[in-house]
Amino acid sequence: MHNNRATLGSRHLLCGPAFAVPGRVSFPWFASRRPGWKEGDGKAADSCYHRLNFRQTDGIREGMSGKNERGDAPRNGEVAERISDRVRGRLLAAGRQFHANDNIHEFLEPGELEALQEEVTARMQDVLQALVIDTEHDHNTQETARRVAKMYVREVFGGRFAPPPPVTEFPNVSLLNELMIVGPVTVRSACSHHFCPIMGRVWVGVMPNEQSALIGLSKYTRLIDWVMSRPQIQEEAIAQLADLLQEKMQPDGLAIVMEADHFCMQWRGVKDMNSKMTNSIMRGSFLKDAHLRREFLSLMPGTNH
Ligand SMILES: [Zn+2]
Questions:
Q1: How far apart are CA 141 and CA 147, in angstroms?
Q2: CA of 236 to the centre of ligand 1 (A)
Q3: Alpha carbons 214 and 233: distance in angstroms, whole number
Q4: β-strand partners of 52
Q5: How far are the Cα atoms of 30, 173, 198 from residue 177, in angstroms, in the given order?
Q6: How confident is the model over 33-73, as pLDDT tens digits?
Q7: From ligand 1's centre to the CA of 266, what distance in Å?
Q8: Which tens digits make up the pLDDT trace of 130-179?
Q9: Is the backbone peptide bond immediately before 184 cis, with ω within 30 degrees of 0?
């Protein structure tokens, strides 16, 4: 059961004074049991994707298999398969969704991320060519394709390709059943529509029960970063985060609020510097209990509402 609310350019959701965290709020400093997080088994048949036949087109470099990078062109018009095609083939065979904000690490074999980065470099170079940028003589852009590929694959979209951060959960030995609030945690993401940065803050409210697992404070930051380091849509980002925390902690209630600047509205488009998007997810006891919800919203530290 959950509730998704979004407001654009408005902060009414977070109204109310900011309080210092009083005694009622405790933090989960514990760490835990289950290492890693299994999304299900997904390594499916890739054998039929080893070679694809398609016509080689001028200007397209196949930045994946070592063969092509060394310049050994395959014969008979057969082009060595792109690494992205191989990974895509596995995802399709397994019937798995691979939207921009999905994590696909289970479908990557060792060494393939490096190859994928090479492929992105080659294709990014084509984008620069298409923008009619003389990368050969412009020293500023000579390494741009490589830099952008590294930034996408390893950094800003690294949460698509990296396994989940190791988070161990602690049993709730003290039988905590009081509201815990974590935040504001700085979030950095990018919009799926334009790949423009999204910079914001997230607050998480947890109402544990005796069976709930607790996770260490820093682990919230790691999990949030893993989810946000993908091309995202704010509403989907916090829903993914809620699912992840729900699965790890099994609390009675879970509340998440995210407030963010969307650079695709500030840098381009309407160029409105003041619009922020705030949205929230309330699950379990936060959805059922208006008092608890109000308490969470009024205690969120760092808000100036
Ligand atoms: Zn956008």
A1: 9
A2: 14
A3: 28
A4: 79
A5: 15, 11, 34
A6: 333 333 333 333 333 233 333 333 333 344 444 444 444 44
A7: 10
A8: 999 999 999 999 999 999 999 999 999 999 999 999 988 888 777 777 89
A9: yes
Nearest to 84 by CA among 53, 57, 107: 107
Asked if residue 135 lies in contact with residue 103, where contact means CB atoms within 8 angstroms, the answer is: no
- For residue 131, the CA-to-ligand 1 centroid distance in Å is 20
Phi, psi of 118 (to 5 degrees): -65, -40
Round to whole Å and give the CA distance between 76 and 33.
Answer: 54
Which domains does the chain possess? 2-37+166-299 (3.30.1130.10), 47-161 (1.10.286.10)
Show Cβ contacts of residue 17 under 8 Å, excluding neighbours closer than 6 positions: 298, 305
Q: How far is the CA of 192 from the centre of ligand 1 (A)?
A: 6
How far is ligand 1, taken at its centre, from the CA of residue 233, in Å? 8
Instruction: Residue 243: count other Cβ atoms within 10 Å of its Cβ.
Output: 15
How far, in Å, is the centroid of ligand 1 from the Cα of 154? 21
117 Cα–ligand 1 center, Å: 24
Task: Report which residue type is found at 167.
Answer: V
pLDDT tens-digit series, residues 249-280:
999 999 999 999 999 999 888 888 888 999 99
**CA 193 to ligand 1 center in whole angstroms:** 4
Of 84 and 178, which is predicted with more confidence? Answer: 84
Secondary structure of residue 47 in the 3-state scheme: helix
